[in-house]
Write a structure and sequence with these properties.
Blueprint lengths: L26 H7 L5 H17 L6 H7 L5 H77 L8 H27 L11 E4 L1 H13 L8 E5 L7 E4 H17 L6 E9 L2 E8 L33 H11 L5 E5 L3 E9 L6
Parallel strand pairs: 2-4
Antiparallel strand pairs: 1-3, 4-5, 5-7, 6-7
Length: about 350
């Protein structure tokens, strides 16, 4: 302030918020406006400042230069500086008020945008849920007639017709699985995924799941084994969703395996938790690609000629289900060697 060396008394035009110092005239301009200095006096003081800087390397404030040259009394200078400080404080206060107002307005805009996004997300989830429900009705009719045909309740079938019915049955199961996946996708956060937690035994859940997986055509070229200790304690989780998640891990291990490969499912006690693991001898995953496999509708081989089919959402939903149980899906993989997917569940408390 007191060191100002500007002769320009016109404040610049600003299109954005004004800095507080822009709102207050500089000391030299203010003294000229108040009639305490002439323009010639101000020029002399500025020239004096410049001379001391050039000849003696001294830097003095404008006010000091005015006093040394006897161009103004110290009392008048002090009063002018005090007034300028008060003006600057007032300008700062106004600037803060303006900034607070802009912050409040921006916060309101962001909240409105968030509300709209939340509503759009709800509409999307409702749409997915409704579509999934509507698709299930005709599918239920289809599978009924497919079963009748397969059991030859509507007449005997030739080998060619039986083969065609088997293709229909496989397509039905694939479409049904895709609809289930689509329904799960409507739960776009782990918080929105409702869990029905209960006590159950993995020894009872896994063997039928293994048998069901072995029956799938894709499993014909791999060896599927499992190891579940008979004395393994019960776990506390959502039985249906955990069964679905393990099934997805098994399907994924088979899908990305190689002919003659192996898939092994195990469950072991680790303290007060049970560690569930699905290991395979498949193609493996590069470390930089591990995060990508959990992206919805994404496959590492996204080409039209990829060997493995599917919509690319099974692992996304599996991870979501596992995280909804308060745990983490861990991936260990080596390209060309295979992968291991594992997560843990809490041991259930003994019934009273």
């Amino acid at each position: 302030m007191a060191g100002s060396d500007s002769l320009n008394v016109h404040k610049p035009r600003m299109t954005g918020p004004l800095a507080p110092e822009i709102l207050v005239p500089r000391l030299g301009d203010s003294l000229v406006e108040k009639g305490l200095l002439t323009n010639d006096d101000l020029k002399s003081a500025l020239a004096y400042q410049k001379k001391l800087r050039a000849e003696e390397g001294k830097r003095i404030l404008l006010g000091e230069a005015l006093i040394q040259l006897g161009l103004i009394e110290r009392t008048k200078l002090d009063a002018a500086i005090t007034e300028q400080i008060a003006q600057l404080q007032e300008a700062l206060s106004q600037s803060n008020l303006l900034l607070e107002q802009r912050v409040q307005e921006r916060t309101a805009e962001l909240q409105e945008a968030l509300d709209k996004l939340t509503e759009l997300n709800r509409l999307k989830n409702d749409f997915i849920s409704n579509v999934s429900h509507e698709l299930r009705t005709p599918l239920a009719h289809m599978v009924g007639y497919i079963d009748l045909l397969s059991d030859e309740a509507l007449g005997s079938l030739s080998d060619e017709q039986r083969s065609a019915v088997n293709v229909l049955k496989k397509s039905y199961h694939r479409l049904s699985s895709l609809i289930d996946n689509l329904l799960f996708m409507s739960f776009d956060t782990v918080e929105s995924l409702h869990l029905e937690s209960a006590r159950f035994q993995l020894q009872q859940l896994i063997p039928p799941l293994i048998a069901q997986t072995r029956a799938k055509p894709a499993a014909a070229s791999v060896t599927l084994t499992h190891e579940i200790p008979e004395n393994l304690p019960a776990v506390q989780a959502d039985h249906t969703k955990i069964e679905w998640a393990i099934g997805q891990l098994l399907d994924n291990a088979i899908k990305f395996n190689q002919k003659g490969g192996r898939v092994h499912l195990s469950a072991t006690l680790d303290g007060r938790r049970v560690l569930i693991s699905v290991a395979d001898t498949g193609v493996g995953i590069p470390s930089e690609k591990v995060a990508d496999i959990f992206e919805p509708f994404h496959q590492l081989d996204g080409s039209s000629t990829r060997r493995a089919g599917g919509a690319g959402i099974g692992l996304t939903l599996t991870k979501r289900i596992v995280e909804a149980h308060g745990t983490k899906l861990v991936v260990e993989s080596l390209p060309g060697k295979g992968s291991r997917f594992s997560f843990s569940l809490p041991v259930a408390q003994s019934p009273a």
